[in-house]
Amino acid sequence: MNRLNGKVAVVTGAAQGIGAAYAEGLASEGAKVVVADLADTSAVVNAINEAGGSAIGCQTDVTDNQSLAAMLEVTESAFGPVEILINNAAIFASLTLKPFTEIDEEEWDAVMRVNVRGPFQCAKTLVPSMRRNGRGKIINIASGTFLRGAPMFCHYVSSKGAIVGQTRALAAEVGADNIHVNCILVGLTESEGVKEHKQLAAIKAPTLANRVLKRAMVPEDLLGTMYFLASEDSDFITGQCVNVDGGALNY
């Protein structure tokens, strides 16, 4: 408990689902959390503060530099320099599974803009704050779909492969600043978006069959890995990917 006591953490896409679990988990370990999202963050912020944690919400577009700069200003004014960034914001549950020949260029660009450019822009904005802090932990969120080349999701899978590359390249650039950059490869998780996605229901049974651990994956299954990568426990680890999927894929 309290392994992240006093550390300032920003979680993007944290108004619901897995992002909300990350934010609430960080707060439970003592971090001061900025819940960043385009959607209303009040429910998550209130839940954290009512549980005795410390959180503020900030309406943030991860693809807009002015929005990100405003978020950083609010963060540093309220809590001080940032140590932890969870790059969680992404387009996923709103996508329809379809052959790559049916994905138009506008949809492809939207996925790449949020899922790939968004983490890049967030890192550009927050790394100077981490340098002022003297250390930092950037945790990017990729997907097990990249490992298996999941069909019918070509743009999403491609975006998560790009995040793996981005993790490795950024880690090589900021290591001298005592900033660590790692990535969690997330398996199919029973978030609100997945539960409501009718097409994804069809792949739940085969996904479960492939797992060594024979149960559904829930957002809380990701928290232990996140705590490890966000804390001093991982201070000699950077540029790495950790696959969390119940043993469905080896990596």
Report what the structure shows.
The protein is α/β, with parallel strands linked by helices. It contains nine helices and seven strands; from the N terminus they run E-H-E-H-E-H-E-H-E-H-H-E-H-H-H-E. The chain has helices spanning 17-28, 42-50, 65-78, 105-133, 145-148, 154-174, 192-196, 198-210, 223-230; strands spanning 8-12, 32-37, 54-59, 84-87, 136-143, 179-186, 241-244. The mean pLDDT is 94.
Return residue spans where pLDDT drops below 50 for at least 5 consecutive residues. none
- Globally, the shape reads globular
Count every beta strand, where a strand is a DSSP E run of 2 or more residues.
7
What CATH architecture label applies? 3-Layer(aba) Sandwich
Task: Give the strand line-up of the largest sheet.
Answer: 3-2-1-4-5-6-7
CATH fold-level label: Rossmann fold
What is the H level of CATH, i.e. the homologous superfamily?
NAD(P)-binding Rossmann-like Domain
Number of domains: 1
H-E order: EHEHEHEHEHHEHHHE
Helical fraction equals: 40-55%
Beta fraction: 15-25%
* Name of the CATH first level: Alpha Beta
CA distance, first residue to last residue: 29 Å
Reported for the largest beta sheet, the result is: 7 strands, parallel
Which secondary-structure class do the elements indicate? alpha/beta
* Mean residue pLDDT: 94
Whole-angstrom Rg: 17 Å
Helical run tally: 9
